[in-house]
Amino acid sequence: MNRDSAFFKSSSKIAARFLQTAVIIDDRAFVKEIEPDYTQPLIAPPSLATSKLSEDPPSPTPTTPPVSILAAPNPHGLDAHAVIDGYARKGIVCSVLCRQPEDVLGNPLSRLSQLAEVADILVIDWNIHLNNQESSEETLELLEKAIQKNIDETPRQLRLIVVYTGELDLNSVADKIRNRLTSKFGDIEADGDFAFIRGAVRIVVLAKKTIMGRSTDAKKQETDFGDLADRTIAEFTEMTAGIVSNFALDSMARLRKATHSVLNRFNPSLDSAFLLHRCLIAPPQEADEHLAPIIAAELQAIIEDGAQPLSPQIIAEWFEQRPDTHATYGFSTPAEERQFLVKLCDAGHKQALAGTVPSQIDRFKNLVPKATLNELINLIAGSETEDSNENLAMLMAVKARYSSELPYLTLGTIVAQAKDTQTIYWLCLQPSCDCIRLDGVRGFPMLRLSQSMDRFGLVIKHDDKFVHLRVDPRPFKVRTVEFKPDSAKKCVLSERRPDGSYWFKSKDPNYTCRWIADLKFEQAHRAVQALSSQNSRVGLTESEWQRRWDLANFDV
User: Fold this and answer.
1) Radius of gyration (Cα) for the chain, nearest Å?
2) What DSSP element (H or E) covers 443?
3) What DSSP string describes 461-511?
4) How far apart are CA 388 and CA 374, in angstroms?
5) Do residues 150 and 187 lie in contact, with contact meaning Cβ atoms separated by under 8 Å?
6) Whether the Cβ atoms of residue 414 and residue 459 lie closer than 8 Å to each other
7) What is the pLDDT of residues 137-194, one digit of tens each?
8) Which ranges in 19-136 belong to alpha helices (H)?
């Protein structure tokens, strides 16, 4: 992305408001000090025997003021004061630690392991001194473990790791990182010569400034200690610069600032009222599930109160930094294309295409067939897109898992059953209150979902592949499957297998199924309502002529 574009600069400001902590680990961090001048020879003071008190003292010989002479800074060192001050000016708390050999991610008690979990930005040096020798093996292991941990996480943590080094041959450093990660994880996405991306981890090689000895490309990676904050914020922005992601970052920043206001709303004076509420409910444990929704509603109110509408200016800035495709779609200039696209996204599809448009996009007027939608998103993106629509659909309908707790069977749970050579998907319709506090085997109503690419209302991910599902609420699609609850949790708890998948064992071995996802409450409730409507149909004996007149505006 063009870092000089208006959109990137505004994105960088939002990222700076979000970022709060940076951790710098360097085994040769140093602090500049003014040292006394030891370059002048020492002169003994006169004694009483040699001094002549009666004579006037000789006039002092003019000399130049003493100058403190410091050795040239170590090119591998780190000026902690300058780094900390640079981050402080951005409102980011920065910790600088002198790296020790035991500072590794593999040691859960090490400072590095503790701080890497919470740091927004992690900066490490390339070489570490071991037995009077320099070694980069510890840094390579750290990068390897960071990516492996990120792969194992669900969902993955967005992580920026910067290797900040005084090495002259920056290309060699980058090559060693690339080769090590490629041998371990396969293909690593390269962002230029000095940045690598694997999943949600971005690794960037930056250089401490030197007088000479680096290539022209490597020189661009040089960053002063005082400028390290600005540079790392820009590198973080490379991962987050987007309309939706900017809104998410800005929302998180506002939530952080409102933390104390929220805590004031949920103060200890509410305890007695909540306990009264709890003791009046049967069973009392159900009240425990009421806390999360009211806190979530409070956080939603903060986000909504501060939310700013998406202005035409922001939309225009976004289109300015996207790839130019004006010739492909029949526009005479990039400016003409951007003007049309801003109108398309700000005024809407119908108004933008109501007037004269190039023949290449005339087919978008009716959006028929549905495949035209895939072409329209490519026009907006300026390039071929992959899975963008599916990801947004999942974001709106499927719950994210931020916990390591085992999933349990409840309203909205989607499971997959392997039968013969096909996979059958089921949606759990059991009311939430009937999924907990179970003492024995209980039947769960499960609605069979149909796979379809032509007509679907849900998108899920199964083994990293998108699956399009249709909710067919006809009663004969429902099966009741019996499950035995966990004796301690008193719910139908899944079991984790070595490959990381979760499975539910039913009383009938034929219905053993794999957990795939949990729908958001509104999505699950819509399926229940659709099934209820089907069950409440009234069959009548009536005139077919009359019935067709009654349904004249519908398909019969």
Assistant:
1) 32
2) strand 442-451
3) EETTEEEEEEE---GGGEEEEEEPPPTTT-S-B-EE-TTS-EEE-BSSGGG
4) 10
5) no
6) no
7) 888 988 998 888 888 877 788 889 999 999 999 999 999 999 999 999 988 999 999 9
8) 80-88, 111-116
439 — phi, psi (to 5°)? -105, -15
Number of H helices, E strands in the chain: 18, 20
Residue pair 399/387 in contact by the 8 Å Cβ criterion: no
**pTM recorded for the entire structure:** 0.82
Token pair, residue 399, equals 């719950």
Describe the chain by its helix, strand, coil percentages, rounded to 5: 40, 20, 40
What distances in angstroms separate CA 167 from CA 74, 82, 221, 310, 371, one per listed residue?
11, 20, 12, 45, 52
**CA atoms of 97 and 119, how far apart (whole Å):** 13
Among 318, 295, 190, which residue's Cα sits nearest to residue 242? 318
The angle that helices 243-257 and 228-240 make with each other, rounded to 10 degrees, is: 120
| Residue linked to tokens 């490597």 | 218
CB atoms within 10 A of CB 293: 10
Mean pLDDT of the residues in the chain: 86
What pLDDT is stored for residue 485 in this prediction? 94
Report the run of H or E that residue 125 belongs to, with start and end.
Answer: none
Q: By three-state DSSP, how is residue 190 classified?
A: strand
CA gap 136, 320 in Å, rounded: 41
One-letter amino acid for residue 52 of the chain: K
User: Are 224 and 299 spatial neighbours (Cβ–Cβ below 8 Å)?
Assistant: no
pLDDT tens column, 270-300: 999 999 999 999 888 889 889 999 999 999 9
